Amino acid sequence: MVDEVRTGQLVSSTQGRDKGRYYLVVSKSEDDFILVTDGEYRGIEKPKKKNLKHLKIWPHHSEGISRRLAEKSKVTNAEIMLEIGELIKLAQE
């Protein structure tokens, strides 16, 4: 199931205190867990570990963020928040 999710993809939480919050996938972890960030409450320096069962996977993703994470380039929290905003707009169309 982790194979369906890719770095830079938009996801939203369906369970827990952060229910309804949008995140970008930072990396895949073991089993059915991934690391996500929203750039605001969970910065890129300390991503949140989430179970895939507790996430809604959206079809939209950020090519730029994905490429930069793969290249190990610096990505700022402000860029992540901006990108999440843009992807949410796409998802609502």
TrEMBL record:
GO terms for cellular component: ribonucleoprotein complex; ribosome. Keywords: Ribonucleoprotein, Ribosomal protein. It comes from the Bacteria. InterPro entries: Rib_uL2_dom2 (IPR014722), Ribosomal_eL14_KOW (IPR041985), Translation_prot_SH3-like_sf (IPR008991). The keyword Repeat does not apply. This is LSU ribosomal protein L14E.
